[in-house]
Amino acid sequence: MNKSTLLAMLLIASVVAIWEALCRVWAIPVFILPPPTRVFATAIVRADLLLPHAGVTALEIVSGIMVSLGVAVPLSMWMFASPSVEKAMAPLLVTSQAVPVFAVAPLLVVWLGYGMASKVLMAAVIIFFPITITLLEGFKSCDAEYRVLFDLMGATFWKKMRFLYWPWALPHFFAGLKVGVSVATIGAVIGEWVGAQMGLGYLMIQANARLKVDLVFAAILWLAFMGLTMWGLVGLVERRTVQWK
Amino acid sequence: MNKSTLLAMLLIASVVAIWEALCRVWAIPVFILPPPTRVFATAIVRADLLLPHAGVTALEIVSGIMVSLGVAVPLSMWMFASPSVEKAMAPLLVTSQAVPVFAVAPLLVVWLGYGMASKVLMAAVIIFFPITITLLEGFKSCDAEYRVLFDLMGATFWKKMRFLYWPWALPHFFAGLKVGVSVATIGAVIGEWVGAQMGLGYLMIQANARLKVDLVFAAILWLAFMGLTMWGLVGLVERRTVQWK
Amino acid sequence: AERLTLMLDWFPNVDHLPIYLAQQRGDFAARGLEIRIVSPSDTADALKLAASGHVDMAVSYEPQAIIAASEGLTVRVFGRLIEHPLTTLLFLRNRGIEAPRDLIGKRIGYTVPGLMDVLLEAFAKINGIDDYTAINVGFTIAQSLTAGRVDAIMGPFKTYETVVLDHLGYNAGYFELEKWGIPDYDELVFVCGTAAATRHRAALQSFVEAVQVGIDLARQDPANSLEAYLKAVPEADRRTETEAFRLTLPYYASHQRLSTVRWQQFADFALRHDLIERPVNVDHLLLQETE
Amino acid sequence: MLDVTGLTKKFDDLTVFERFDITVPRRGFTVIIGPSGCGKSTLFDVLTGVVPRDDGVISWQGKSFDHLGGQAAYMQQKDLLLPWLPLMDNALLPVKMGAAGMANSRGKAVALFKRLGLRGFESYLPGKVSGGMRQRCALVRTLMFERELVLLDEPLSALDAITRSRLQSLLLMLQSEFGKSILMITHDIEEAILLGDQLLVVSPLPMGVQEQYALNQPKPREIDDPTLLKIKAHVLSRLKENAIHE
Amino acid sequence: MLDVTGLTKKFDDLTVFERFDITVPRRGFTVIIGPSGCGKSTLFDVLTGVVPRDDGVISWQGKSFDHLGGQAAYMQQKDLLLPWLPLMDNALLPVKMGAAGMANSRGKAVALFKRLGLRGFESYLPGKVSGGMRQRCALVRTLMFERELVLLDEPLSALDAITRSRLQSLLLMLQSEFGKSILMITHDIEEAILLGDQLLVVSPLPMGVQEQYALNQPKPREIDDPTLLKIKAHVLSRLKENAIHE
Ligand SMILES: Nc1ncnc2c1ncn2[C@@H]1O[C@H](COP(=O)(O)OP(=O)(O)OP(=O)(O)O)[C@@H](O)[C@H]1O
Ligand SMILES: Nc1ncnc2c1ncn2[C@@H]1O[C@H](COP(=O)(O)OP(=O)(O)OP(=O)(O)O)[C@@H](O)[C@H]1O
Ligand SMILES: [Mg+2]
Ligand SMILES: [Mg+2]
Fold first, then answer.
1. β-pairing, E181-185 with E2-11?
2. Which of E48, E79, E84 to mutate to test binding with chain B, by most B CBs within 10 Å of its CB?
3. Total domain count, chain A
4. pLDDT digits (tens, 9 = 90+) for B54-106
5. Which of C90, C112, E246 is nearest to D163 (CA)?
6. Ligand 2 atom 3: the closest Cα is on which residue?
7. Which chains are adjacent to chain C, needing at least 3 Cβ pairs under 8 Å?
8. Helix, strand, coil proportions of chain D in percent (round to 5)?
9. Which residues of A touch C142 (CB under 8 A)?
10. Domain limits at B13?
């Protein structure tokens, strides 16, 4: 274990320690902020309860990311290809960020029913925005000189995309994806407000209404764990893909 | 008016038209999805009601952005300066994204009361993440050759920051800020669920409880307008600042 | 079998116990019904979706149904689950609050803006609380009370938040609305859209009959009924739900006849106190054979 | 034949050239030489459509073109290698992009890599090789274009004398054996005299053709040929007149 | 005096140089010449700490250093101008960063801009000037360093003959009047012979000093001096031996 990892662990340990101390010294009631020991204990002891819910949420997150990528990637390419599309889409995209879930929840239910689809859509909507924007900025950051070179070679738009703009935008794309997978967890949770029967978000609302705050935080711990795993995976893929840096 | 603006307006107009047609042809009830004509009418006719709430929300958003920048900028610089800090902070940051508002709302209330502070904090927490990550990736994207040049000139870390890394990261920073200001609107709304007395989020909950769905959507329209204005402002500052591109 | 979807007002809780009981015992199936129970994301969703016909039936609140009627939503009320208000003005004991007038000059929270703040206003006016600060606390009920951010809250249920607070070691007191000048009303009711009201008329009738059977059974055999419910809703917390069930038991509907007089009284009260803007004639709202 | 008349290019208030004329004979080797910053690269950029022209007519083989983007191979002054592609893939880019036929293009690239001393570095990323090697790789890429007209902007500037003279012979072979029409910018007078059939000396901003030499000596030439030495001295004195005045 | 012994640098399995020795006398002008890709730039990178060395001792004025990052001014082969700073600000960067005194530095830069033919372009962004102008700006930036030791990697490669000869005199003045110790890489043999007090011909990978000439002729020199011509021919034949074998 190297020095940097050690330091990292120390920092995390101290955050946890401060949290624990805060709870004990100020005697913060468990239903306001449970101490980490209790949260960890609940996360493990109630794994039998948490695990099936976590599975559902994980599935929603992964599907949400897929759907998001499926829309964000072509859309950002389209916006990049045509500035007027960008001009037209930007307001719609920004507007899409301003719509809170409860306003559209009935619509989603009307259109998609109570199954997984509405949750996946909510998660996708949330992840979608940072990916589209960062990818678009990535494409745009390509030096004009290189674009010209490809023009001279008679490259079609798609060839330029594949061989020039994409590799160029990759670091940006991964930055966006990192933001995306992190907010995906909250996306799925919000999605589960749209009438779910399962999932960590559903469990949390239930537990919260019953003031079982330790269970709420245990669910958050699982969520965070899932978020970190995906973050790590994206980092791994990034290092594999962007090797020339 | 040039061709591109025309096309943009056409696209937006057609989205609005489809929405209107949907409402009319499928006879979607107003309380599920009001037609855009009605939403626009409400947004303007009830401006006297909406305006003061919008003012409060705008103030929260702007303060949230300020607070966020105040933390994100030094933090990303710190993470950039020390890889072990980055390693240590990354999990905490990702975890912070996995915490849904209702879980921390009680904490916020206990600590900050029902005033403006809790809303500003919520908005700040949401904006904070994309800004920090994109800024960090921006710093990291700086070519090693330039870093070396500055080392040779004996530049201190701060001078390198100011004259090299910052200008280099600016396009990334603005991409992050664009994502930030867009999600800031929803951040403020979520914040206002934590017991506000004013603000568009408060108004929306109230209108929703009273089944005045057109007012809910009118509030969303105002939110979107605010988001777009800030988006435009960031774009303006970007074009002013990143002139060399 | 006739398939119907029922949307609850909120996540499943003991208020809905008779429904789950009927489901478990096959009372719906016996009447040729196949009921699917779903939860909403917001308390207003269920009514909206029922009114628009996207769900067949929904659990709603009498005040909400009256607001909807006033706003021109085409809903019909065809049955009830809880026949008196559970909503209270809740406070912590030992903090010097004995009567509503003790709240003069205090900070009073409320849960749902647009609904509970209006009820609070009416309550204050009727009971002479002429000076207070209203604060929207959302659902941070226990936290804001125990942290002393507010002195009382309009909105918590006397059958639920009291139990939760008790388990946290706090003794909660409350003012019951119907005892302090606000007309009595049906807390939880069943609503449907106008289309469903005609198309599924018989099925809706069978449904409320089955629910009433569930209610009666819960009264006769509380212990087994609770077990059946806990089996159907495994996420529920046994200790809290047991206690809440005991407190809710007296409030389940004793029969399914809706009182036009009582509903009209509440509608008039709502108009008087600005809960609604346009008058509501409950004859068009209530769906029943004869009063 | 490439025939350019009345070409004009301005950057804001800076007139780079105005009513500039130039003619490049088919299968000829035309060399442009002139002071740094006089507008040579800009001329190439305008010819290939990299930057738009303000005025003028460009015609190639009798046909008039907006620019020669699709007609010419262009080696820019910067190497513009893609940092994520190994040298060989960078060189083969024109083939992938459709600016050259697929048939045997790899064999051609391999041969060129060998000839330009890049053998063994095919799989290196551009960030891991020297400046001269990058320039050579960019040259290979340009030679992979299957275009008759070749524009070269200081293609050999980063190379040592020996490598340079080898590549000069390569360029000559390109002209004679493959029938290319070459237009090259250089700042090395000897190189200009050794390679060119036509030598244009241009003046500083706004750029204009100041002197034009037709060189009919057979190639390969020797630099100590007395006529050539005389031309060299003459060009040098011409250039000196244009030089920056302090 | 710069004294380097036993310097070794490997990239993975590529040995760039092994036990390489070099001595640069104080106030001397040492020129390195060698084939493209042989490791010259890498040597400078190792000396200045841009890349870590694997082995060897570097000592400057009797003191041993890990690298000369803080001791030397280094002009890299790429111009590395900051795209967002006007040329003048780019040139003044070492002053801002503390590698040079503030006093009169702007006056010095203005004089250099004039001398290098950059007058009038002070406020241009690097993206808007020619390749040669960028190189000249990078040279000004290097000369702004107040360091006795100056390492130059092909500083004049992108310049035309006249500008080049002007800047050669400038470099000579730097040595004679300002007492700088200069170590320069070039691929132009004439330049090497005109400027150097010491000329090192290096061999291809792994790089080694193959031949070393001490040139004591007074400066400025004329290239048609017979001894110099003889040396030139000799160096050329030496380099030819090293050249890429096809
Ligand atoms: N980062 C690196 N990783 C691996 N190999 C490298 C790296 N940098 C340089 N090399 C290799 O080291 C060798 C020497 O490169 P260097 O840049 O020092 O050559 P040079 O003598 O300066 O050539 P030129 O005259 O063309 O500039 C080359 O073969 C190159 O491939
Ligand atoms: N994008 C631009 N905007 C404004 N001015 C420009 C731009 N590009 C070039 N110039 C100007 O045009 C002039 C000619 O530049 P160009 O690159 O054509 O010179 P060059 O003859 O190729 O020089 P070199 O031999 O140094 O490469 C320069 O003075 C430069 O400042
Ligand atoms: Mg040029
Ligand atoms: Mg080099």
1. unpaired
2. E84
3. 2
4. 999 999 999 999 999 999 999 999 999 988 888 888 888 888 887 777 777 77
5. E246
6. E128
7. A, B
8. 35, 25, 40
9. 31, 211
10. 1-33
